[in-house]
Fold:
Amino acid sequence: MKTSYIIWGIVAIVIIGGAVWYWGQHSTSPSTQTQVSTIQTIQTSIGFLPDATSSAQSVSTVPSNGDTNPYGVAFVPAGFPSGGMLSPGDVLVSNWNNKTIQGGGTTIVKITPTGQQSLFFQGKTGLGLSTALAVLKSGFVIVGNLPTTDGTGATAKAGSLLVLDSKGKLLTTLTDPKLIDGPWDMAVNDNGSQVQAFVTNVLSGTVVRFDLVSSSTGLTSHKGTVIASGYGHHTDPNAAVVGPTGLVYDASTDTLFVASTVDNAVYSVAKAGSITTSAGVGAVVYKDQQHLHGPLGLAQAPNGDFLVTNGDAINADTTQPSELVEFTPGGTFVKELSLDSAPGGAFGLAVDVSGGTATLAAVDDNISSLLMWTISVR
Structure:
């Protein structure tokens, strides 16, 4: 959530020597998390989030073309078809920036459970791949894009949804001037051949449900419906654009949860998989001026709690930079974890559960890296 032009020139002294970091440079800001080369299973003292003293595995998300500012995070699910580049447990990460501007990134990288990074997809120049990233059980990947020509919100375009196969080949580009307006994040209700993709539009403050059909050749959209609207949204001199972002869909209750950055709150939208008209912003689930600082990415932990990253573009607090916050479904604060000692590092995240452990993956876009923890599930 940083511009690559405005330099704050703040000097941060870190453990090894000293490092100069800039608000818009994503390769030099030190993380507050202890980093290790391999993932270690940890126990948490309270809630799901790791304790501040827990070690995180850190893997660079910068591919050979130099793309930075990782946004989207998605795990490859169990049962994903073999024969391509992806295996269950792999993590995909999408890059929004290229080496010079915001909204110019064209790559998705794959990170294996052992921390090996490789290129999965590279698209045409100027895509600006967003946080809207999902891997489907049927073997396809969906990623949103929101391009800019100069790195500012003034030149942001509506973008599209790209459908890729398991080998990173572009199959289809979905566009709709009435429904796709800056796809910023995504959640899916994945039932194999039938998929509902929920997408936030950062340029219009809406959430759209796309009813998709999966076949051996790709995905087709049969219907798109605006199911929520009225969320705050605007351009920003540092972040380019801010608006509704993270989504979690609970199939057991047919409820969609929405992290709205500008409103500094998390909302719920009832009957999200079936309603045919907009429910407005829905109901407030969590609004906390002390712990929320522009909520962005949203995920649900195995214990049922929600995890939300904060980008610091709204209600910033220098004592709580780049926070990852855990709260209960009832809206009670549980715990927080700073992902970076500088503001603006937190964005996309995801959780994957396998057996008795869960893997939490969250980007630190200050240093263009993915942080991963393996957590014992009690």
